[in-house]
């Protein structure tokens, strides 16, 4: 039976959504993994989003809290806002009180990916502050660590990640396809190994 991994994200301008799609492509290459993309509900009005220059939302389904319980594991993604997850993702997690009360997500593995506007724009603090959400649900945080060997310490290329998770800085200006693909695959394989 396939491991069901939900890739749940919030994206204002489409950058995090592109990363989520990359992770899904990686997941589809891992045997016995069934990955599904979900986006969390938007909290801003269409008027405000229009003033911000945000593109229309894609047709990726919007997840509800109860649908989280159907997954075997998760990879959560969001843009960084001042060193933390975007408010839209936090609002969604705040709506999962019923799942928390029954501990419906306890023991399920979860990884994190985020995107920032700059290379040092708070990737690690975003992951660290997001871990508290997982902890209260009894979920198992699955970092990528340094599982990809010398990949993190190699200094010749800019990488998109840290031991806490996949987190390219300045993703809308640079696209490091090879490094991103490798980190995405590692994330999926680690989540899938918990089943």
Question: In words, what does this structure look like?
Answer:
- The strands form two sheets. Strands 1, 2, 3, 4, 5 and 6 form a six-stranded mixed β-sheet that branches. Strands 7-8 form a two-stranded antiparallel ribbon.
- It has helices at residues 15-28, 46-52, 65-68, 87-94, 97-102, 123-136, 177-192, and strands at 3-9, 33-39, 73-81, 84-85, 109-115, 140-141, 161-162, 165-166.
- The protein is 35% helix and 19% strand.
- The protein has a single domain, classed as 3-Layer(aba) Sandwich (Rossmann fold), CATH 3.40.50.360.
- It is α/β, with parallel strands linked by helices and 195 residues long.
- It has seven helices and eight strands; from the N terminus they run E-H-E-H-H-E-E-H-H-E-H-E-E-E-H.
- The mean pLDDT is 83.
- Strand 7 (161-162) and strand 8 (165-166) form a beta hairpin.
SSE map:
Layout: E1 3-9, H1 15-28, E2 33-39, H2 46-52, H3 65-68, E3 73-81, E4 84-85, H4 87-94, H5 97-102, E5 109-115, H6 123-136, E6 140-141, E7 161-162, E8 165-166, H7 177-192
Parallel strand pairs: 1-2, 1-3, 3-5, 5-6
Antiparallel strand pairs: 3-4, 7-8
Protein name: NAD(P)H dehydrogenase (quinone)
EC number: 1.6.5.2
Cofactor: FMN
What are its keywords?
195 residues, alpha/beta, Rossmann fold, 6-stranded mixed beta sheet, EC 1.6.5.2, FMN_Rdtase-like_dom, NAD(P)H dehydrogenase (quinone)
